[in-house]
Structures are given as C-alpha cells and as structure tokens.
C-alpha cells in the first residue's frame, strides 16, 4: 500500500486514503500513564517505583490495555555519569517490563531509558506486547541541547513505527514533538496513535500542551503523552500527562504531582475524524515535500 509518495507537482492532488485501511467501528482502549517522579542517578530506586506503580495501575477497576511510562525513567538526566548508569543493552529494563507485561497480559510502552550499547548511550523506548514480546525499540532522534543531551547521548537513526494490539502506532520522545514532519511521516505510514514519553519542564507548559494538541489535530490521531513530575538539578518538571483524541479534545490530563492518569479512547474516532475532514486525501505533496 503506497501511503507516501515523493512525486512531481501535478495538476491533481495525490489521493491517498488512510480511512479505507483503518478501523471504522468503535474500539475502546484503556490507558494508564505513570506520571512519576524520578530519582536522579538511582536506577534501582526508580525500578522499584515503576514496579509499584505498574502494580497499582493493573489493579484499576477497569484493567488498562496499555501502560505508558515517562522519558529516561531509569536514570533521569544524570548525564555526567550516564555511561556508568545506563542499562547495558536495555536488559534490566526488558526483564522488568517484559515479565510484567506477560504476567498481566498488558501492553507496555516503556517510556524511555538510558541504554548503553557498546560505548554509546541512547535514549530509547522499549515496548512489550501482552505476551511480553518486545515490539518497539526507538531511540530519540532529536537530542535536546538545552538539557545537554547532545553532549552525552547518541541519537537514533530510525523512526518508531510499531503495532499495538493490531493498531498501527508511532512513538517519539519529548523534544521530538517540536518536529511536526516526524509525526506526519508516522501518520502517513499509518499510525493512528502516537506515544510520547517526556521529561518536559517549566516554564514551557504552554508549548507542551499546544504542540501535543496540534500533533493530534493535524494528524487526526490519538496522542498519549506521559511526562514526569518532581525537581531535578533546579529544574521543575510539571507532569500534565495528556491523552488527546483525534479531534483535539483533551480526554485526560494529570496535575503536577505524582499520579497515575487513566483514560479511555475510542479508536473508531480516528476514521470518523479523517472522513469528516479528509486532510490526508487533500494533501499536495508535490508542492511541499
Ligand atoms: N527532554 C526533552 O526533550 C525536553 C524537551 C523540552 O523541554 C522542550 O521544550 O522541547
């Protein structure tokens, strides 16, 4: 199926239908976002916190289908010691999350972790399906200079497309949301949901909310963004984890304290919104690719 085409300018816009290929019936998905505080440079403490919050999330009255974690939850931004602290090949993280996913039959979009591969450290999301099988590995493409990521980390070189319970989805990390072309590309590849783990601090709450809503509206997709809370090295992280529907409505939003944010989304709305305003059919890729 051709969803993306680098063509020459033609008198007729290229007609691309994402609607025909996606679910049209109501399909409810329950989400739990672990909006946690992160102890800087203390992977064991953070792993215990994750285990405790996962256990609480799974006991919710309506069991979640997907649990989402924030960015760099194992180490925080302990960049001065990141080579020593990062999880070698992501093995410890994979053990913890894969085992939990399998035991409880739940999908996990495991936020991101500092992962050491040889002499490089990457900021990587791991995802696990209901059988505990790894179905997503995406390393942050755009490193955030304002927090010195570019000095300590190696950027990823590929996009985070994956399949979650049969739903085509994309994953990006924090600063990546400032690059609309990345999310658009994931949407053109079929993504109907977008997962965004983050460590996004004050004073840019306005940017966080606006950019997430914009990505949901312009790509007519469900956006699930999990941000951390707490203080680290004089920086204050505000939480406000968000679940946004493809019309841009905020279905759930966290406060500024540690909590689990629950939401239920209807995947059928993606097709409905894309039919109502056929943005993907009306694109003129020859004019601005
Ligand atoms: N961890 C990050 O990528 C932070 C991005 C951020 O704060 C921003 O304003 O962009």
TrEMBL record:
Pfam family, one: CN_hydrolase
Domain CN hydrolase: 29-267
Protein's UniProt keywords contain Endoplasmic reticulum: no
An example Gene Ontology molecular-function term: hydrolase activity
Keywords: Hydrolase
Organism this protein belongs to: Paenibacillus lutrae
Name of the protein: Carbon-nitrogen family hydrolase
UniProt xrefs under InterPro entries: C-N_Hydrolase, C-N_Hydrolase_sf, UPF0012_CS
Family membership noted in the UniProt record: Belongs to the carbon-nitrogen hydrolase superfamily. NIT1/NIT2 family.
Superkingdom, natural source: Bacteria
């Amino acid at each position: 199926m051709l969803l993306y085409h680098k063509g020459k300018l033609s008198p007729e816009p290229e007609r691309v239908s994402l609607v025909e290929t996606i679910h049209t019936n109501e399909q409810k998905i329950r989400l739990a976002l672990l909006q946690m505080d992160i102890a800087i440079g203390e992977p064991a403490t953070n792993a215990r916190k994750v285990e405790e919050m996962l256990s609480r999330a799974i006991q919710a009255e309506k069991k979640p289908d997907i649990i989402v974690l924030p960015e760099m939850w194992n180490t925080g931004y302990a960049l001065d010691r990141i080579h020593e602290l990062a999880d070698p090949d992501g093995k410890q993280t994979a053990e913890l999350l894969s085992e939990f996913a399998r035991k409880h039959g739940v999908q996990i979009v495991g936020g991101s972790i500092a992962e050491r591969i040889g002499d490089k450290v990457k900021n990587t999301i791991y995802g696990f399906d209901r059988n505990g099988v790894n179905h997503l590995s995406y390393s942050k493409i755009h490193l955030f200079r304002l927090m010195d990521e570019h000095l300590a980390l190696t950027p990823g070189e590929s996009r985070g497309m994956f399949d979650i319970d049969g739903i085509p989805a994309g994953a990006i990390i924090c600063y990546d949301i400032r690059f609309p072309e990345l999310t658009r590309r994931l949407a053109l590849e079929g993504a109907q949901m977008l997962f965004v783990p983050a460590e996004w601090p004050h004073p840019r709450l306005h940017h966080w909310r606006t950019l997430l809503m914009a990505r949901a509206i312009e790509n007519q997709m469900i956006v699930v963004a999990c941000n951390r809370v707490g203080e680290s090295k004089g920086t204050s992280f505000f939480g406000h984890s968000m679940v946004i529907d493809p019309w841009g409505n905020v279905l759930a939003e966290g406060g500024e304290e540690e909590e689990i944010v629950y939401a239920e989304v209807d995947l059928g709305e993606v097709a409905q919104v894309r039919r109502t305003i056929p943005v993907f059919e009306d694109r003129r890729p020859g004019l601005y690719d």
